[in-house]
Amino acid sequence: MQYLSVRVLRRNIWRCLSFEEGRFPLCDEYGQLISGWTMAEMDDEKETRWLAWLRAPIDTDQHLLEFELTALALSTGIIDAVSFPKFHCFVSNQTGNTVLFAVTAFSPFGTRQDTNFTAPAAHLAVSLGFFCLGVFTPGQTSSYLGCRSKKWWLLLTNAVQTAFVLIAALINLVNRTPNYETDDLNSATILCSIGLLAFASGAQVAMSRQLGMPEIPTTQATAAYVDLFVDPNFFAAVTGNRSRNRRIAFLLTLVVGSFVGAPAYHYVSTAFAILLAGIIKIIVALSFLLNRSNSTRILASGS
């Protein structure tokens, strides 16, 4: 290793002080001038690195992504624990809404058992329609732009989802209606809340599917139950079956979310329960800033 003499150091200091204003010199170890960077060039370099960081696809094999998607399942459990008793439909589980359409269609003709449960057709239509729109719009947009797993797209789509959930919470806070109220079924407050939450759920499902982690769909539990129990490696060691571990974590967090959302809705309010789900989505959206890029993983594995 070579050390600079006092004379060379003095020469470098003199060049830095007397160099052209706004330009920073780049000298070699002997004090000879190589080149200089202007402030604009340095800013361009920083901007280029920032844009490259945003455009880089995230590493879909990291444990942080598993945590983020299971946290979104927790949010889903809270919201559906509110939507069914309050809105008389699901905003995430569209299998139930599809079946309830038939029940609603034949309800005027009577049923063998009289029940007090009603599933308004308007609620089902809004939920199913906005859910499909929430899947279609970001799903097709990300495919067209080729940005399915890029950081800027994940940050943007999560920000939109979170905003929709928070707006729904605000609507229910401003226009509060009693829990289990049946006289205000088709009000603008109810229908807007259903539409916002269903769109956010659809966009969330589209995002999780495009990240290539089907074991954590964040909403539908039926496929996860089936895939879990037909897994030929179900009895493998804890570290020997990552797909099974993901499904178990997803199902547990979905159940926990339901047990959190139900008392929050029953004992506090609809707005409070939806706000809890929104806070979880905020945390997840911010955590996407910490996700490792795919190129970083390749470099790390190569070294």
UniProtKB/TrEMBL annotation:
Q: List where the protein spans the membrane.
A: 152-173, 248-265, 271-290
Q: What keyword terms does UniProt attach to this protein?
A: Membrane, Transmembrane, Transmembrane helix
Establish whether keyword Membrane is in the entry. Answer: yes
Entry's Pfam families? DUF1275
The UniProt entry, under InterPro entries, shows: DUF1275
Question: What PANTHER family does its record include?
Answer: DUF1275 DOMAIN-CONTAINING PROTEIN (PTHR37488)
Can you say what this protein is called? Answer: Histone-lysine N-methyltransferase
What is the species listed in this Swiss-Prot or TrEMBL entry? Lecanosticta acicola
